Amino acid sequence: MIRLKNEKQIDSIRQSCRMLSAMFRELMPLVAPGVATLDLDKWAQGWIKKAGARPAFLGYGPKSNPYPAALCVSINDEVIHGIPSKRKIAEGDLVSLDCGIDLGGFMSDQAVTVEAGAVEERLRALNTVTKECLYRGIAAAKAGDRLLQIARAVYGHAVSHGYGVVHQFCGHGVGFDLHEEPSVSNNPKGPNPRMLCGFVLAIEPMINLGTPEVDVLKDGWTVVTADRKASAHWEHTVALFNDRTEILTEPL
Ligand code: MF3
Ligand code: CO
């Protein structure tokens, strides 16, 4: 069931999204060679608590293996869901940061990929095109149109650059829960419902330099590319109205 959101509910989700983007704006400059990813997570947990909210990812998932952090920090061949650890960021790393905030029961979700120091040109190009994929996907998210328009926009742009588009993981509805229906695929296949006024979606292309295939590591979370080549990830939370689509999280 797709849960539509009214104006008042969207305003509450908007507040959550703005808080999340404000957090990211302070977090991104902390990404630098020599910094342990666990330190970024500690900082984010502190920031979110101080702001009077809850990290939406912390404790999420199966009871047997709940997600242990506020942030996902996914470096190079890690696509998504990298668990913060003692690992230190190195010069030239492509570092994806993903976070969600629960503000009074209203959920936001956003991700960026940050370049640590001097990054190889082909990785910078991957990152640029992945961000372009996100904005093309958002431009295709319109009430009245079909959901797979988003995937067509993302997929077409990525493939035109020879990249692999991850299909085992998707964007999603968001707002009352972190993950709601519908699933927002980046591949133009599968169910294709009409998008409606009141949809709130997390649109999140995950684009690989090489193969689109991925593996999940033994920790049960970390998703890596099957060929261990680099990957990038950008995400916004957006709300669909009859006459416009609003990006609720802020540009980063
Ligand atoms: N942000 C991820 C997504 O975009 C969700 C992370 S799963 C968690 O769908 F367990 F880390 F929370
Ligand atoms: Co998401």
Please give a structural write-up.
Strand 7 (171-173) and strand 8 form a beta hairpin. The protein starts with 6 loop residues before the first helix and ends in a 5-residue tail after the last strand. The protein is 27% helix and 25% strand. It has a single domain, classed as Creatinase/methionine aminopeptidase superfamily (Creatine Amidinohydrolase, Alpha-Beta Complex). A five-stranded antiparallel β-sheet has the order 8-7-9-14-15. The longest helix is centred in the first third of the chain and has 21 residues, at 7-27. The chain has helices at residues 7-27, 37-50, 121-139, 148-160; strands at residues 54-55, 71-75, 78-80, 94-103, 106-115, 164-165, 171-173, 180-184, 200-203, 206-208, 214-216, 223-225, 231-233, 236-240, 245-247. By secondary structure, the chain is of the alpha+beta class. The structure holds 2-amino-4-trifluoromethylsulfanyl-butyric acid (MF3) and cobalt (II) ion. 2-amino-4-trifluoromethylsulfanyl-butyric acid binds at residues 57, 60-61, 67, 72, 81, 98, 100, 109, 172, 202, 204, 235.
Low-confidence stretches: none
Shape: globular
Give the % helix: 25-40%
Through-space gap between termini = 32 Å
